């Protein structure tokens, strides 16, 4: 068996839970690392506020909105207590990115609006003691706003991309499931077709062999020559059935054991009904056949011709199995025209025991007839005849 096809769209590589925890811890450590050499010069208040601003980033993935508001509160405290920037300012764009990346879009827009207000407030606070307050206010506001907007844009882009990739992966998996279902349905249809073919070949061949073998057994006592000829017919029928089975089983393999392609031959059709009738007569059944002229069946589609052949074959098989001795069978096949379409009409009827016979196992014969004919949009009727016997009739559009 071949391996299933890989997923059409693969997710990009992502960190696992442990990797994400380590990444956030290293990020917080990298933002706080400059405090070690600068801690004494910045003062205790600046160092404490920086720790409060950066520390919440450890939980930014699972609680992005809460972390953002915690960082916002710490920055508001910084504006009140200190009139200059601190190293903890770097936590702000990370918090904005986390909200835009992890939370729904409205939270991201709210974070962007708060960032604009915070940038103006911090810039105004830092410009109070500047020689050029307006220039300081403008430059700081633009810088802080641009940094916050960049974090928001990157987070929004990441969230949109993740949703897009998830949609592609989900669609790819759905397509794979649907393709697998189609393959399973096709395999089931193929198994049903093979079962019908095997039933037709085996049932037909064995029914002829059984009838001929019974005749040879009785003839062996009185007429050995008849028995010998009958056994030749049994052997010939058995060889034909085996050849047909080998042909069908060979189609299931890509190659035979020696690497050569399986031997193929044309499927039987309407032109082969003569041989089918002759075989039934050889088996001791009296058959009155009305078959179409070969010129009329030349342009009948191969599938329709094969279906008609199999229906007649199955009907004759059922006659030999169920109709009883000294039965007379009438086989009528014609290619008729109805308007612009042609129809293959066939009828096989006998005057034997008909419905009084025991049912054939699971009824695969009649079921196979109906399935074959329904594929071509035709109809099958099968049942007892008035006055005795059994009849099978079918109409197959050609």
UniProtKB/TrEMBL annotation:
Its main location: cytoplasm. It holds the Pfam family HATPase_c. It is found in: Cytoplasm. InterPro entries: DUF7134, HATPase_C_sf, HATPase_dom, His_kinase_dom, Sensor_HK_TwoCompSys, Sig_transdc_His_kin-like_C, Sig_transdc_His_kin_sub3_dim/P. CDD domains: HATPase_UhpB-NarQ-NarX-like (cd16917). The keyword ATP-binding applies. It comes from the Bacteria. GO terms for molecular function: kinase activity. Its EC number is 2.7.13.3. Its cofactor is [4Fe-4S] cluster. Keywords: 4Fe-4S, ATP-binding, Cytoplasm, Iron, Iron-sulfur, Kinase, Membrane, Metal-binding, Nucleotide-binding, Phosphoprotein, Transferase, Transmembrane, Transmembrane helix, Two-component regulatory system. It catalyses: ATP + protein L-histidine = ADP + protein N-phospho-L-histidine. The chain crosses the membrane at residues 25-52, 64-82, 134-154. Residues 310-398 form the Histidine kinase domain. The keyword Flavoprotein does not apply. Member of the two-component regulatory system NreB/NreC involved in the control of dissimilatory nitrate/nitrite reduction in response to oxygen. NreB functions as a direct oxygen sensor histidine kinase which is autophosphorylated, in the absence of oxygen, probably at the conserved histidine residue, and transfers its phosphate group probably to a conserved aspartate residue of NreC. NreB/NreC activates the expression of the nitrate (narGHJI) and nitrite (nir) reductase operons, as well as the putative nitrate transporter gene narT. PANTHER family: NITRATE/NITRITE SENSOR PROTEIN NARX-RELATED, NITRATE_NITRITE SENSOR PROTEIN NARQ. This is Oxygen sensor histidine kinase NreB. It comes from Nocardioides abyssi.
């Amino acid at each position: 068996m071949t391996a299933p096809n890989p997923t059409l769209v693969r997710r990009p590589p992502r960190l696992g839970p442990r990797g994400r925890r380590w990444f956030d811890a290293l990020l917080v450590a990298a933002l706080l690392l400059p405090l070690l050499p600068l801690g004494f010069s910045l003062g205790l208040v600046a160092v404490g506020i920086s720790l409060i601003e950066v520390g919440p980033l450890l939980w930014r993935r699972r609680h992005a909105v809460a972390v953002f508001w915690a960082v916002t509160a710490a920055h508001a405290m910084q504006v009140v207590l200190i009139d200059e920037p601190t190293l903890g300012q770097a936590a702000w764009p990370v918090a904005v990115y986390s909200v835009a990346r992890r939370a729904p879009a409205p939270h991201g827009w709210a974070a962007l609006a708060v960032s604009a207000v915070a940038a103006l407030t911090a810039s105004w606070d830092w410009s109070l003691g500047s020689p050029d307050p307006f220039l300081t206010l403008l430059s700081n506001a633009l810088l802080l706003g641009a940094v916050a907007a960049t974090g928001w844009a990157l987070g929004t882009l990441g969230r949109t991309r993740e949703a897009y990739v998830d949609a592609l992966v989900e669609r790819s998996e759905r397509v794979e499931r649907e393709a697998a279902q189609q393959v399973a349905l096709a395999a089931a249809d193929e198994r049903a077709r093979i079962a019908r073919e095997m039933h037709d070949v085996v049932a037909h061949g064995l029914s002829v062999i059984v009838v001929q073998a019974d005749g040879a057994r009785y003839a062996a006592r009185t007429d050995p020559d008849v028995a010998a000829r009958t056994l030749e017919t049994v052997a010939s029928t058995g060889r034909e059935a085996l050849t047909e089975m080998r042909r069908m089983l060979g189609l299931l393999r890509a190659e035979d054991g020696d690497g050569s392609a399986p031997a193929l031959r044309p499927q039987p059709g309407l032109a082969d009904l003569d041989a089918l009738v002759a075989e039934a007569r050889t088996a001791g059944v009296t058959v009155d056949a009305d078959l179409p002229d070969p010129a009329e069946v030349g342009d009948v589609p191969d599938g329709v011709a094969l279906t008609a052949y199999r229906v007649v074959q199955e009907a004759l098989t059922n006659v030999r199995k169920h109709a009883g001795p000294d039965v007379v069978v009438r086989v009528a096949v014609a290619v008729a025209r109805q308007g612009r379409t042609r129809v293959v009409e066939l009828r096989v009827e006998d005057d034997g025991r008909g419905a009084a016979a025991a049912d054939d196992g699971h009824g695969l014969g009649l079921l196979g007839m109906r399935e074959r004919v329904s594929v071509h949009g035709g109809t099958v009727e099968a049942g007892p005849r008035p006055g005795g016997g059994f009849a099978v009739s079918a109409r197959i559009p050609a």
